[in-house]
């Protein structure tokens, strides 16, 4: 039996007990005797045990088995893991509850009756827990005993099987439902049936959100069917791109509870644009079941509805499938053979689930993901199963009874050892399991660090270097690495194509007043991308200055990608134009102007006399040349290399629009 009442202050014996939460300072008055009982603050969610006498409140640790549902994985705006004495982190857009002089309190005098398991066609039925503060009664001894058995079983690796056969039966499932055979790891998670595809929108008009990055926003038509609504944000490098010339990274929003979906927003862009700066297309997409500001509590109708939609969308698999079909049907610049999934935290979990079910992916990147949901939700599994959300933990856990062996593409995992939100040990275990199945997996870790900032740096730069390697292996001769060509993005003017990847000889730098013919490829090395970006930054000085030392005048910015065989040293890069009056080189010789070369935003030239560096695989550079020449100027790039001790030169041409 539960009682709910509002509080009015009173005095004398039996009067309401005044309670101030030590964590958030919210003041409550308890209208009945709760001595020795557990209470939960409605302001911050912390739990305490009430004293039986005049003693102090005793805070209950968060790993206490009475927690109803674990909090969400924090949204990426949380830079650091919260101290243990502070409230459980929530998605950053969720507002804090307003303080109140009145409150509701729920007291459970006896154990609630068993909850009925919802039928597949009906919304899940749950027992409501409406109060901001909950005083909890004695637990049913049978459930307590079962919980103890289950805890041991999970430790022994038996949790998944017991979970399906027993925990779902807690909600009143029929014998046939409770004893139904578990799905095989080799059966696709989309087993409920084929995905109904919505009408796909066209690519929206483009707008520059920063130099070199163009965003095209589209929206699906909407409707009741899973995956029919939500935003699609397509990022492309500025300029024109030949059909099938761009690799693409697919990414969804981080910061969900893993029981609900989430929506992308402007705060997600720090996780999107680094890939675009490196020459990749990016498609960011919503997942069904965004709970908005609903609290992660099964008593909240909005949260239950969000979980229902998320489950209907198969934990975001439907949204990912629709997004991939949009890429393949509406974005010809993207190479369908070089599409990757990536994500941080809960979005990393979504990327791994997608990789387990989508054989067309060529790689998967997951930063600090939750890999074992049965372990993560632990004591909350009975609650989750009783509410009809069992599949979200069982069927859609990346690591569960060998399901990870379904991944067919290379995997990159990153985790900071100091992450207090998602344990790095779980990612180590996941990587070990993938290796045991013979999968191609790379695990990068750093000592210390946190859950979010470490993902931005060094996580994403490390992943981009790995993605370039995998993209280079996946590129076929018929679909070379990214190179601008005469295929315009939406609302963008057409530029001349550069021939870097075509393999034709081109006139490149001027030497002693004469043009020199250099090939686009030599000894396995190739200029895969060479394009003018902008003239909006001041990065180099005049007359032999250095990169990073501006002189008050904007410089020309070029983007270069090289495909290099092992054992390659990049000795020098140079630019020239036809009139031989404008020349830029990495080693000033009295007749050329300084060419600043940067890699990952840092100067790549240790000194004028030294080579730029030794590299292999796909490498990206930003070039900054002094002065600002007019549109339609043709720039000729020359790259001097040493490959296995032998000199070589390659070149390419681009035209400033």
The side-by-side strand order for the widest beta sheet comes to 9-10-11-13-12-14-15-16-17
Average predicted local confidence, pLDDT:
71
Tally of discrete structural domains:
3
Poorly predicted ranges (pLDDT <50, ≥5 residues)? 1-15, 62-191, 476-516, 543-548
How many angstroms separate the termini? 74 Å
Helix percent reads: 10-25%
CATH topology of the largest domain: Rossmann fold
Which shape, going by the Cα principal axes?
A: elongated
The helix-and-strand class reads alpha+beta
> Number of helical segments?
12
How would you name the CATH homologous superfamily of the largest domain?
Answer: Alpha/Beta hydrolase fold, catalytic domain
Gist of the model:
18% of the residues lie in helices and 27% in strands. It is built from twelve helices and 28 strands.
Describe this structure in words.
Helices cover 18% and strands 27% of the residues. It has 657 residues and is α+β, with helices and mostly antiparallel strands. The chain folds into three domains: 36 residues, no CATH class; 269 residues, Rossmann fold, CATH 3.40.50; 156 residues, Immunoglobulin-like. The strands form six sheets. Strands 9-10-11-13-12-14-15-16-17 form a nine-stranded mixed sheet, sandwiched between helices. Strands 20, 21, 22, 23, 24, 25, 26, 27 and 28 form a nine-stranded mixed sheet that branches. Strand 9 and strand 10 form a beta hairpin. Helix 1 packs antiparallel against helix 2. The longest helix is centred in the last third of the chain and has 22 residues. It is elongated. It starts with a strand and ends with a strand. The relative contact order is 0.09.
């Amino acid at each position: 039996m539960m009682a709910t009442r509002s509080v009015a202050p009173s005095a004398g014996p039996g009067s309401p007990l005044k309670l101030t939460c030590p964590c958030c300072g919210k003041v409550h008055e308890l209208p009945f005797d709760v001595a020795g009982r557990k209470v939960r603050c409605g302001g911050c969610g912390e739990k305490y045990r009430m004293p039986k006498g005049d003693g102090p409140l005793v805070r209950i640790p968060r790993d206490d088995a009475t927690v109803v549902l674990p909090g969400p994985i924090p949204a990426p705006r949380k830079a650091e893991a919260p101290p243990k004495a502070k409230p459980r982190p929530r998605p950053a857009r969720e507002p804090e509850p307003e303080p109140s002089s009145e409150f509701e309190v729920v007291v459970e005098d006896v154990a609630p009756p068993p909850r009925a398991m919802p039928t597949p066609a009906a919304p899940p039925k749950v027992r409501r827990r409406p109060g901001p503060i909950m005083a909890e009664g004695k637990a049913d001894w049978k459930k307590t005993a079962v919980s103890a058995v289950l805890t041991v079983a999970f430790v022994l690796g038996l949790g998944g099987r017991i979970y399906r056969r027993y925990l779902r039966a807690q909600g009143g499932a029929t014998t046939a439902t409770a004893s139904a055979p578990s799905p095989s790891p080799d059966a696709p998670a989309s087993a409920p049936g084929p995905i109904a595809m919505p009408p796909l929108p066209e690519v929206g008009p483009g707008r520059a959100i920063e130099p070199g990055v163009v965003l095209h926003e589209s929206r699906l038509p909407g409707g009741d069917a899973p995956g029919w609504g939500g935003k699609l944000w397509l990022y492309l490098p500025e300029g024109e791109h030949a059909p099938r010339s761009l690799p693409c990274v697919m990414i969804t929003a981080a910061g969900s509870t893993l029981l609900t979906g989430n929506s992308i927003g402007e705060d997600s862009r720090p996780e999107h644009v680094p890939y675009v700066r490196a020459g990749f297309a990016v498609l960011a997409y919503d997942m069904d079941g965004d709970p908005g500001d609903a609290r992660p509590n099964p008593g909240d109708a909005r949260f239950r509805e969000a979980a229902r939609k998320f489950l209907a969308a198969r934990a975001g698999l439907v949204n990912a499938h629709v997004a991939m079909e949009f890429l393949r049907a509406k974005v010809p610049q993207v190479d369908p053979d070089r599409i990757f999934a990536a994500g941080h935290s809960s979005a990393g979990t979504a990327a791994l689930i997608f990789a387990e079910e989508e054989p067309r992916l060529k790689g998967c990147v997951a930063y600090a993901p939750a890999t074992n949901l049965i372990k993560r939700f632990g004591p909350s599994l009975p609650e989750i199963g009783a509410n009809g959300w069992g599949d979200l933990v069982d069927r859609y856990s990346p690591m569960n009874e060998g399901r990870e062996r379904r991944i067919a593409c290379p995997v990159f995992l990153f985790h900071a050892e100091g992450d207090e939100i998602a344990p790095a040990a779980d990612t180590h275990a996941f990587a070990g399991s993938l290796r045991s199945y013979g999968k191609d997996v790379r695990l990068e870790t750093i000592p210390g660090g946190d859950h979010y900032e470490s993902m931005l740096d060094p996580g994403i730069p490390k992943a981009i270097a790995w993605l370039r390697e995998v993209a280079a292996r996946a590129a076929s001769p018929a679909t070379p690495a990214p190179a601008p060509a005469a295929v315009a993005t939406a609302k963008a003017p057409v530029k001349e194509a550069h021939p870097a990847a075509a393999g034709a000889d081109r006139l490149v730098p001027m030497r002693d007043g004469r043009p020199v013919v250099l090939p686009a490829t030599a000894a396995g090395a190739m200029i895969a991308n060479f394009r003018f970006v902008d003239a909006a930054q001041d990065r180099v000085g005049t007359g032999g200055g250095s990169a990073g030392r501006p002189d008050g005048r904007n410089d020309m910015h070029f983007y270069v990608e090289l495909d290099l065989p092992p054992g390659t040293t990049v000795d020098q890069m140079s630019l020239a134009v036809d009139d031989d009056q404008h020349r830029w080189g990495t080693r000033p010789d009295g007749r050329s102007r300084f060419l600043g070369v940067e890699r990952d935003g840092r100067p790549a030239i240790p000194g004028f006399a030294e080579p730029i560096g030794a590299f292999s695989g796909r490498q990206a550079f930003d070039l900054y040349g002094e002065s600002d020449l007019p549109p339609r100027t043709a720039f000729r790039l020359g790259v001097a290399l040493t490959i296995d001790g032998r000199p070589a030169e390659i070149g390419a041409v681009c035209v400033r629009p």
